[in-house]
Amino acid sequence: MTPETLSGHTLVDPWFIHALQRIVEMEAHLLGETLTPSLLRRAKRLGFSDDQVGTLSDMLPEQVRSLRQSWDIRPVYKMVDTCAAEFEAATPYYYSTYEQENEAPALKGHKAVVVGSGPIRIGQGIEFDYCSVHAAWALQEEGVKSIMVNSNPETVSTDFDTSHRLYFEPMDEESLRDVIENETEDDGDGPPPSVVQFGGQTAINLSQSLAQAGLPLLGSGAEAIDIASDRHKFEEFLARLGIPQPPGAAVTSVEEALRVAQDIGYPVVVRPSYVLGGRAMEIVQNATEIIRYLTVATEAGQGRPVLIDKYMEGRECEVDAICDGHEVLIPGVMEHIERAGVHSGDSMAVYPGLNLTPEEVDTIVDYTTRIGLALNVSGLINVQFVILGGAPYRSPLFPREDSPDTSVYVLEVNPRASRTIPFISKVTGLPVVNLATRVMLGRTLKDLGHSGGLWKRQKIVAIKAPVFSMSKLTGVDWYMGPEMKSTGEVMGVDHDFPSAVSKALTASDLTIKPESVVLLSIADKDKAESTTLIRELLQAGIKLYATEGTAAMISAMNAPVTVITKRLSEGHPNVVDVINEGRVNGVVNTVSQATSVLRDGFYIRRAAAERRIPCFTSLDTARAAVESLLFGSGSLQEDQGRPYSIKRSEEYLDGP
Amino acid sequence: MTKVAQRSLQAGDRMGTGASKVLVIGSGPIVIGQAAEFDYAGTQACKALREEGITTVLANSNPATIMTDRGIADVVYIEPLTVEVMDRIIARERPDGILPTLGGQTGLNLAVAIADAGLLDKYSVRLLGTPLETIRSAEDRELFSKLLADMGEPAPPSITVSSMDEARKMAQEMGLPLAVRPAYTLGGTGGGLVRTTKEFEAIVSGGLSASPIHQVLLERSLEGWKEIEYEVMRDSSDNCITVCNMENLDPMGVHTGDSITVAPSQTLTDKEYQMLRSASLRIIRALGIEGGCNVQFALPPHPVVDKAIGSNWEPNAPYYVIEVNPRVSRSSALASKATGYPIARVASKIAVGKRLDEIPNVVTQKTLAAFEPALDYCVVKIPRWPFDKFPAGDRGITTQMKATGEVMAIERCFEAALQKAVRSLEMAGRSLMWEDPDWRRDDSLLSQPSQAIFDYGQSCMV
Asked: Is A127 on the interface with B (CB under 8 A)?
């Protein structure tokens, strides 16, 4: 195909296609010729990575790197000076290229590289940019020069005055090692250490490569990261500490998977190992679904093991903690509104855990402390828990009815900053990243005026609520499950739960309005439990529409309901019609993994997304919403609901 | 001079440097179309205003931002961004100015709602940066077309409709394909290109309900044309500069946020470059913007592409103005990082009365903000799409943005910058050599644009 034909096909200007052709021609040279210094230099100047060169010339990336070293083919760094070098500039902002003159001689003195988090994606959002920026600032406070590496132009971390130096580079091993080499002084103390705890999974993944290359890390070692991410090592680790976790195993075949699932009992949570944001994670109910999962859905793992764990339908909690090797400081405990099974990034998180008994909090603090110390964490750790026993949803509005006979299990440990760091920092007033970075530099919590244990509980209620962008992604099913789907978050804060939840729901466009109409379509497994929600909706004066099965149940409760068919081919108005015509103002639609249930609900959820009306796929979120209407400030309209506070951030922290 | 500009100049005189307490509106949660760039912009704005001795009050509902931290603004409200809440914040803080141009579409929409609710008069507070009329004109398609006509700037033939019946009637007159753009939506939500009657019915009805004022614009499609953007700055003394121009590798028909973008432009003649530069400066002047502004143009394509489109329509202008964002945008974040010119910072200083020649460029520490940046390198931006999370989703890239984020790479030539940017995507080690087994060739090349560049590369080999 000629570039012109391709240009006609794609409507892309021939100039760009010709450039691509030059890249492709270089590929052919690398594939067909013996690598020489001149060929390698030309390839590097066209932007070929060591990895690409290696693939084409049948070498490992590391071998290409050694060749580059011996042939003295190294990138130099040029300044972004806004004036094409016409005037002198003092911009500490650089990019790499394969030319002669290096404009970035190694910074003198004590310094560290902050590994950024790359592009914003679902599962790795702006939270990690927040953490990287604070890490750079904390380094500076401690007299350490900060060197930022990141590839994302939308961020504060890549702003000119965030760090001493900014390298705008891809977040991969080659770039990072090149930057570190460039920052290694000839007569200095060796390569500067890297900070990998704040750049999300991107930075954590790079920690193993850096460790292999013998490059120093600031804070927790690569070993802690390895134990936390290897299912087998992690299980042994927790067993040694006597801390319970849901039973499970890593498997590599269908037979093994079926055996494990049989042993631990359905439902089970299945997921590929080493993935981000719960990608391709599912809760499966039976053997057929396991077989389907392993044969169809394991692409994500690419030959890597699949993890199978017992699904425990309990309340989920999480903590972030700072560990200095001697003590573990826990800023606060966050409790999720949605029960386990909804990805923590998609759950509404409540600070402080209003429903937790003192015993549960003590256990969480104890487990976190022991895990942090035993893993030898230096810096941050995030631990997720599930609490079994009692009802999986407990409204923070009402006193506990169930006995405190519960047990706490550890679901997950991440030896790095998590996405709740900005939230927990703001609601507790503790500068979490700052403290963690200084601990990583060798300070102790005691030095910094803190001690281990749970930080004082603030007299507020704060709720972090997810925000989805599903109206933009046509064809995407967005029910909440173990795979994260939200793109952002909001916070609602006040001195009581009803006001805080009203604010969180208002800010995330999830309010149920008084005297409105809500359409219900509840999966069979959730029907029994949904009766409380239905009563609360009626009590709030909401009119109910429901699909066939759900309507039958509501009628059986002697409550008024309008039946709307979910069978799109059987007459009008059906569920999609009533949503599109604007006759309903909210939808509650729960799912099960049964294909037919997913398919029926899909059209309802898509219609709601496109019509931009609230759609609840978890009974727990729906209950929080209706309770905010019944007992809180609702959608914060004037003359409606109870009064709510409007205060400066720091006024909340000073207490009511 | 247009009425808007006259009014703004008068407002500018009044404004002077008199503002002593300014409310900055943040962009709320990260959604597709509004990502971290507004944390970057808002943080710069708060810092820049404080340097001028102005007390900054920030409102944002998103806790995962640097701007809502202690030490950035003087006063922070982490509360929902609604009119009711703003009313109470304004009543409590009594700012004398509101800066809405750094909070994306959310900030502008809220500013319009605040004005409509009469809060500006109630608390005698004024909007800084962009006149309210300009915000309205840039958002309301009909007013915008009229404004362009007043300025003598060419707009693609179009008509605004507010019902399906009206839309059908107009489509009969104009013929398909048409671009559908709903008024007042984020990242083009609810819009799209329609080639068939079926698509027309679906997208227009979706767009009407997506638009808070139930209005969509039907526009002559310029699919396949080059899409060029300019970032321009203007101060209250009518000094203007262009910060940077950018060219989309993807032609018109693909949302800018979903396009691979190159800075500076690579395929324009000097004459074309200057023609669009002059037009950008004329536009920002006519709109009376004090601060930053983004102007998007469509330029006729290369003859090879023109032939492939096979349009028999004869354009009546050498270019068309597609869109004007009278605020700091995603593109301005990119332009700032691509040039080293801190647009949000300079825009904030201008909003409180500083002139371009009074503002030092703190990035270089040697030049002034009145100095037009020059680049001796090439910058490539590639969007990061969420399709790895949603394999079942519709990957078709249209005028509705789908990317959650983006990467940027800088190098001396386009080829190297492009390859570096591909590496930056962190797509499990995919380089340009990566080939998707599911690719379908031929006319479906653009059906999976997230992989299109890989596909182009492969096609060059065949």
From this structure: yes
Position B139 in a domain: no
Residue A196: inside a domain: yes
Within 8 A of A422 by CB-CB distance, chain B residues are 63-65
Round to whole Å and give the CA distance between A364 and A384.
Answer: 9
Last residue of a domain, one of A218, A237, A265: A218
Same domain, B166 and B103: no
Residues A168, A288 within the same domain: no
Name A165's bridge partners.
A147
* Minimal Cβ distance to B31: which of A119, A172, A488: A488
Q: Each residue of A110-159: pLDDT tens digit?
A: 999 999 999 999 989 999 999 999 999 999 999 999 999 999 999 999 99
pLDDT in tens, A307-323: 899 999 899 999 999 99
- Residue B8 has a pLDDT of 43
**Token pair belonging to A540:** 């709030």
Q: Which residues of A touch B35 (CB under 8 A)?
A: 120, 126, 154
Give me chain B's average pLDDT, please.
86
> What is the CATH number for B319?
3.30.470.20
Q: Does B186 share its domain with B43? A: no
User: What CATH number is given to the structural domain containing A29?
Assistant: 1.10.1030.10
Residues B380 and B410: their CA atoms lie apart, in Å, by: 7
In angstroms, the separation between the Cα of residue B410 and the nearest Cα of chain A is 6
Answer whether residue B343 is part of any domain: yes
Cβ distance A487 to B460 less than 8 Å, yes or no, reads no
pTM over 0.80: yes
> Rounded distance, CA A579 to CA A611, Å?
7
Contacts of B266 in chain A (CB under 8 A): 15-16
Same domain (yes/no): A321, A285: no
Put simply, the answer to whether A491 touches B392 (Cβ < 8 Å) is no
B300 burial via Cβ count (<10 Å: 0-12, 13-18, 19+): middle
Q: Chain B 26-45, CB below 8 Å of chain A: which residues?
A: 28-33, 35-37, 39-40, 43-44
Is the pLDDT at A559 greater than 70? The verdict is yes
Chain A interface disruption, residue of B244, B252, B304, most A CBs within 10 A? B304
Is the distance from CB of A485 to CB of A477 less than 8 angstroms? no
HSE (side-chain half, CA atoms, 13 Å) at B213: 18
How far apart CA B86 and CA A506 sit, in angstroms, is 13
Q: Is residue A225 part of a domain?
A: no
The answer to whether the CB atoms of A120 and B404 lie below 8 A apart is yes
The CA R_g of chain A, rounded to the nearest whole Å, is 27
Domain presence at residue A622: yes
Say how many domains are in chain B. 3
Chain B contact for A606, CB < 8 A? no
| Residue B66 domain boundaries | 5-128
pLDDT tens for A609-628 read 888 899 999 999 999 999 88
CB B338 within 8 Å of CB B373: no
Residues A170 and A214 in one domain: yes
DSSP state of A452: S
Helix locations, B242-364, DSSP H: 270-287, 303-309, 330-339, 343-351
DSSP secondary structure letters along A495-555: SSHHHHHHHHHHHTT-PPPTT-EEEEE--HHHHTTHHHHHHHHHHTT-EEEE-HHHHHHHH
Query: What is the nearest CA distance from B32 to chain A, expressed in angstroms?
Result: 6
**Would residue A235 be called left, alpha or beta, if left means φ above 0 and alpha means ψ between -120 and 50 degrees?**
alpha
Q: Which of B301, B400, B446 is closest, CB to CB, to A13? A: B301
Per mean pLDDT, which range of A267-271, A372-376, A589-593, B310-314 is the poorest?
B310-314
CB atoms within 10 A of CB A580: 18
Q: How many domains does chain A have?
A: 5
Q: Do B24 and B100 belong together in one domain?
A: yes
